[in-house]
Amino acid sequence: MQEMITISIIGAKEVGKSALSTQFCYSRIIEEYDPTIESYRKQIEIDNEILIVEILDYDYFFTDSDEIQNLKKENYRKSQGFIVVYSIIDRNSFDELQNYLNEIYLIKNCDDFPIVIIGNKNDVENLRQVKKEEGEEFAFKNGCSFYEASSGRRNNVDESFLTLLREIRKYPFDSKSNSKSNSKSNSNSNSKLNSKSNSNPNCLIF
Ligand SMILES: Nc1nc2c(ncn2[C@@H]2O[C@H](COP(=O)(O)OP(=O)(O)O)[C@@H](O)[C@H]2O)c(=O)[nH]1
Ligand SMILES: [Mg+2]
């Protein structure tokens, strides 16, 4: 059986999550998204191995209902890596990044999970609100990989996804929980998580 890797793509509204996912999976932008499609699958060859990638692209912000929050928890649990997206032309979407990372750290009980941050829409330079260096610095501080990309121009789309897939393949997973193996027994493993979640009132605790 082929190996399947499940990843989640998350971030604020309208930053281009669905555009990035469809560009990666189908090599095209789909102008009118079918809102009922919330996951995509693609078979890829990476480092001479064939695997199936499942991308979970849910919009969790429609409602705070228990049902949606439970779905979100379930999806985060089964994800082996995350693409966290902001738009370089939307400062608010950049400001929300830490909340998204904190959610991942909490549910995975560690702060070094495979995560790639994408600053999307870098084809619209004249409307830029977030400098590239700000994205780089944020990603570096959080130990994440970083790309600026354009799903519209298909710039750095494959690179971002392939970097995440390679990180996932190197990562020491506990096969049952899809979290880091032994992360619970390592008392230092979530020290960053504790300091961040304590200082961040917007952080969701599952
Ligand atoms: N200029 C530009 N527009 C983009 C890019 N990616 C997405 N968009 C547009 O941004 C809007 C939101 O994209 P969408 O993928 O639906 O965002 P989502 O809510 O994060 O899934 C759509 O109108 C897209 O056409 C990009 O790289 N460049
Ligand atoms: Mg979408």
From TrEMBL:
Record-linked Gene3D superfamilies: P-loop containing nucleotide triphosphate hydrolases (3.40.50.300)
Alphabetical keyword list: GTP-binding, Nucleotide-binding
Residue ranges with Low complexity bias: 175-200
Recorded GO MF terms: GTP binding; GTPase activity
Pfam families: Ras
Listed InterPro entries: P-loop_NTPase (IPR027417), Small_GTP-bd (IPR005225), Small_GTPase (IPR001806), Small_GTPase_Ras-type (IPR020849)
One Gene Ontology biological process: signal transduction
SMART domains reported for this sequence: RAB, RAS, RHO
A Gene Ontology cellular-component term: membrane
Region (Disordered): 175-201
Protein name: Ras-like without caax 1
Species, as recorded: Anaeramoeba ignava
